[in-house]
Amino acid sequence: MNKLKIIGLYLLGLICIYSFFILHNSKYLSSLIEKAKDFRTNGFFIFLVSGLIEYGLLLTGIFIIIVLTYFIVKKNAT
Fold first, then answer.
1. Does the keyword Transmembrane helix apply (predicted)?
2. Distance (Å, rounded) from C-alpha 62 to C-alpha 38?
3. How many structural domains is the chain composed of?
4. What is the pLDDT of residues 11-64, one digit of tens each?
């Protein structure tokens, strides 16, 4: 069961990183941000939310992978 958790969390980390790249290269999201630039408050809000979601996914994916790798190396070292 423990190995399934580890594999599942690694997959979750990879899915988060993959989702970041999909959102970052999305034509729909970039066109939405371009259209929203004309509006002062809504444009900033859309830009802020999209940036938080994108980079939150990236950091979450990287953090999960780094922490799991650290715990596995620490467990195998002892």
1. yes
2. 34
3. 1
4. 999 999 999 999 888 888 778 777 777 776 667 787 888 889 999 999 999 999
**Residues 37 and 43: beta-carbon distance below 8 Å:** yes
What is the C-alpha separation between 54 and 46, in angstroms, rounded?
Answer: 12
Q: Are 47 and 34 in contact (CB under 8 A)?
A: no
Whole-structure pTM over 0.90, yes or no? no
> What is the domain range of residue 67?
2-77
Cα–Cα distance between 7 and 42 in angstroms, integer? 40
**Residue written as tokens 């979750």?**
12
